[in-house]
Amino acid sequence: MTAAGPDARERPAARADPAPRRVVLALGSNLGDRLANLQGGLDFLRAAPGLSCAAVSPVYETAPVGGPDQSDYLNAVVIVTSALPARSILDRCQAAEAALHRVRTQLWGPRTLDVDIITIGDEISADPELTLPHPRAHQRAFVLAPWHDVEPDARIPGRGGIGALLAAAGQSGVRRLSGSRLGPCP
Ligand code: A4P
Ligand code: MG
Q1: Would the CB of 34 count as within 6 Å of ligand 1?
Q2: 22, 93, 105, 179 - which has most CB atoms within 10 Å?
Q3: Burial per residue of 15-31, b for 16 or more beta-carbon CB atoms within 10 angstroms, e otherwise
Q4: Known catalytic residues?
Q5: Predicted local confidence at residue 4, as pLDDT
Q6: Cα Rg for the chain, rounded, in angstroms?
Q7: Three state DSSP letters for 135-170
Q8: What is the distance in A from the centroid of ligand 2 to the CA of 101?
Q9: Which ligand is nearest to the CA of 116?
């Protein structure tokens, strides 16, 4: 009997590593040095175990949507691949926010860094701790416009193609910053 023989054949399929999925992350900042905060978030996510950076969008300056009176945001979208379960991906996003000294005082209030998970492959979840796809992303030009720049044919499960969603949302209040870019990624 060889070491790899019967043991290998009997190994249950469930032990196989799950296939990596495409994960779309939306980064936003409207406190402090906004561009440095987005770059810090990207650097943190690139270094996080289990995440591989696949693409990063241009940076947009965007008028705040909802929440209290607050200053304009910089927003960008980062696409990573990961075989991690959704909850572990959320943990890494929240660790990135904490590393950038995010303080939660007010829902939808100003923040040094917000990292929202927009989609994880085709996963659907109604869990308030991690709702997938993100429940408001399909209406938000500050997510759709940067995402569309790097993945024009992408879709939000249950909502449709992001080109049509962006056309419906309109682009008022969002402006691509030609002079500011994040990088590198991958
Ligand atoms: N949570 C549930 N689903 C998710 C998900 N898909 N991704 C939970 C990330 N988190 C998710 O989030 C509150 C809770 O949502 C978390 O505990 C998490 O478990 P939070 O980041 O603590 O608070 P928040 O960001 O103030 O709330 P929320 O509901 O995530 O707000 P949004 O929808 O992110 O809106 N305007 C412009 N121009 N640009 C912006 O980036 N962002 C917001 C925040 C409002 N207006 C904006 C922007
Ligand atoms: Mg958030």
Answers
A1: no
A2: 93
A3: eeeeebbbbbbbbbbbb
A4: 102, 111, 114, 116
A5: 43
A6: 18
A7: CCHHHCHHHHHHHHHHCCCCEECCCEEHHHHHHHHC
A8: 14
A9: 1
**Does 136 contact ligand 1 (Cβ within 6 A)?**
yes
Q: 160 forms bridges with which residues in the sheet? A: 156
| Binding site membership of 172 for ligand 1 (Cβ less than 6 Å) | no
Pocket test for ligand 1, best of 65, 116, 177 (most atoms within 8 A of CB): 116
> Looking at the whole model, is its pTM more than 0.85?
yes
The pair of structure tokens assigned to 155 is 């879709």
Tell me the pLDDT of the chain (186 aa) as tens digits: 344 444 545 555 556 678 999 999 999 999 999 999 999 999 999 999 999 999 999 999 999 998 888 899 999 999 999 999 999 999 999 999 999 877 666 666 778 999 999 999 999 999 999 999 999 999 999 999 999 999 999 999 999 999 999 999 999 999 999 888 999 998
Angle at 20 between CA 14 and CA 25, to 5 degrees: 135
Read off the tokens for 43: 């650097």
| Model pLDDT for residues 115-124, shown as the tens digit of each residue | 999 999 999 9
Q: Which ligand is nearest to the CA of 111?
A: 1
Assess whether the C-beta atom of 28 lies below 6 angstroms from ligand 1.
yes
Contact 50, 20 (CB under 8 A): no
The CATH code of domain 21-179 reads: 3.30.70.560
